[in-house]
């Protein structure tokens, strides 16, 4: 697996995620509103807090971990460094 070097900011809606064979611990994912891309959230760091927030609009700062080319194409997992709940912003 390769991990992005620079942090990335992604906005979207938190949705349930079915466990994937490559990481059965992922239970939620962030779905980008404009592209419908799905980013499975690894339950480490700030990602631990997100299981109870399904349906919330979030902005997350993360590093993206993509599988090696010989593994599942298109699956992206993220390590959340921090997040902001956009439903509560004034």
* CATH secondary-structure class: Mainly Beta
What is the distance, rounded to the nearest whole angstrom, between the alpha carbons of the first and last residues? 38 Å
CATH architecture: Beta Barrel
Weakly predicted, low-confidence segments: none
The overall pLDDT, averaged over residues, is: 82
Order of helical and strand elements: EEEEEE
Question: Can you describe this structure in just a few lines?
Answer:
The protein has 90 residues and is mainly beta. It is 0% helix and 43% strand.
Can you walk me through this structure?
With 90 residues, the protein is mainly β. The protein has a single domain (2-88), classed as OB fold (Dihydrolipoamide Acetyltransferase, E2P), CATH 2.40.50.140. Helices cover 0% and strands 43% of the residues. The protein is built from no helices and six strands. A five-stranded mixed barrel has the order 2-3-4-6-5. It is globular, with a radius of gyration of 12 Å. The N and C termini lie far apart (38 Å).
Offer a few descriptive terms.
about 90 residues, mainly beta, OB fold (Dihydrolipoamide Acetyltransferase, E2P)
What's the SSE blueprint?
Blueprint (H helix, E strand, L loop, with lengths): L1 E2 L4 E9 L11 E5 L5 E4 L15 E10 L10 E9 L5
Parallel strand pairs: 4-6
Antiparallel strand pairs: 1-5, 2-3, 2-5, 3-4, 5-6
